[in-house]
Amino acid sequence: MFNKKISLLFSLLFVLTFITACGSGSEEGSSDSTKKEENASKERTLEHASGKVTIPAEPERIIAPYLEDSLLALGVTPAAQWSIGNDVLDYLQPQLEGVPKIAWDMPLEQVLKHNPDLLIFSSPSSLQNGSYEDYSKIAPTYVYKEKVSSNWRKQLKQMGDILGKQDKAEQVLADFDKKVEEAKASLQKAIGDESVAFVWTIGDQFFVFENNRYIAEVVYNEMGVTQPKFVKNLPEAGEQWKPISLEKLGQLKADHVFLIGSEGEAGLETLKNSSVWQSIPAAKNDQVYIMNKPSHWTIDGVIAHSMSIDKIVKTLTK
After folding, report:
1. pTM of the full predicted structure?
2. Tens digits of per-residue pLDDT, 286-316?
3. Which of 2, 32, 150, 316 is the least crowded, having the fewest Cβ atoms under 10 Å away?
4. Which of 116, 147, 168 is the last residue in one of the domains?
């Protein structure tokens, strides 16, 4: 009798254990199924320059060459970063430390090596080493329309749409607008209606920022800083940036000049020894400010522009 009770008890325990296991397995299966359904619902099909693409729900390995500013602003670290040889976007290196490089023209073998789950190109012309079909076989591929990528604000908003981070993109832009307003007030108090110009030298060539080039667009058109007549008379910025002769630079009647060029750049030495350059108002009044880290000055992006604004305010409000 006792043995029968023991046997019955073990039988009951076995049945209970089997039922529990089945229930647990069913719950796990249901959980997996629910997760797949949620991920599928988060997938979005977007139109872009090369047609339509379905964006994965939560891409983890994104490559977006020369768009890293927008990615990082939205809290996303790319799987690989844009480069030309050893050159990278210097101003972003604190955030991109340890991120491997990928050539600017995105060779297919390099793309494969990094095993991306989403590729983002800045324009159709940036597909250099393969067709859209070649890249889309590796991973879902989004290609910006030129008119969107050429406007850094639109580009950031579109990146928010691509990554499902629209609210984050709006917040980043709102924070930037607040920075602009604060900087505008500081500069109005510090320099009033005195004019400011931006000159970049690379090699022994010189380029003056038009009023819609890089940070100058923000400084002139959003912060209300006075443009020198020289800048007002420049044609609108185009894709091809034409150098300005040293003789013509002598006509730059600006009160303040941000002279941008890497340390040791030939153009810096040329201007230092040029009587033409030394005769402009900013040089005569010791108001030429040499910026030896050109990276964030010569690109459009919310992080780049924020860094430039900080530098401008710090320099002109001393």
Report:
1. 0.86
2. 999 999 999 999 999 999 999 999 999 999 9
3. 2
4. 168
